[in-house]
TrEMBL record:
PROSITE patterns, per database record: STAS (PS50801)
UniProt xrefs under NCBIfam families: ant_ant_sig (TIGR00377)
Family annotation (SUPFAM superfamilies): SpoIIaa-like (SSF52091)
Pfam families the UniProt entry points to: STAS
Organism of provenance: Phytohabitans aurantiacus
Protein name, entry field: Anti-sigma factor antagonist
Family: Belongs to the anti-sigma-factor antagonist family.
Length: 116
């Protein structure tokens, strides 16, 4: 399966909608897009994983890297995900303690950013 990436803005949040599979083959595209958003000055980034069917360790590494880069600049990074198989991966790896995880983009925008 292919990776799809789409960006949209909600107030001061940049939402990166990810679909398909994030694996060793597709993760570099995700990394490139996240670097573009971060280097472009996006103050609040939300990665919407609700259309992701598969996420491997390479994809997790890309998300960790983006989170670290944003955290060091005082900007926010959050994940929107309500898919139990993906949430299980975050729990098993203890990354649920690292990432702010929300069930939807709406919940993430309400909890992060200037109005939170």
């Amino acid at each position: 399966m292919e990776l799809s990436l789409a960006t949209r803005t909600i107030a001061e949040h940049t939402v990166l909608e990810v679909g398909g599979e994030v694996d060793v083959y597709t993760a570099p595209r995700l990394r490139e897009r996240l670097v573009e958003l971060i280097d472009g000055g996006a103050p609040h980034v939300i990665v919407d994983l609700n259309r992701v069917d598969f996420l491997d360790s390479t994809g997790l590494g890309v998300l960790v890297g983006a989170h670290k880069k944003l955290r060091n600049t005082g900007r926010t990074f959050a994940l929107a995900c309500d898919k139990e198989p993906l949430l299980k991966i975050f729990r098993i790896t203890a990354l649920d303690q690292v990432f702010p995880l929300y069930p939807s983009v709406k919940a993430a925008t309400e909890a992060t950013g200037p109005q939170a």
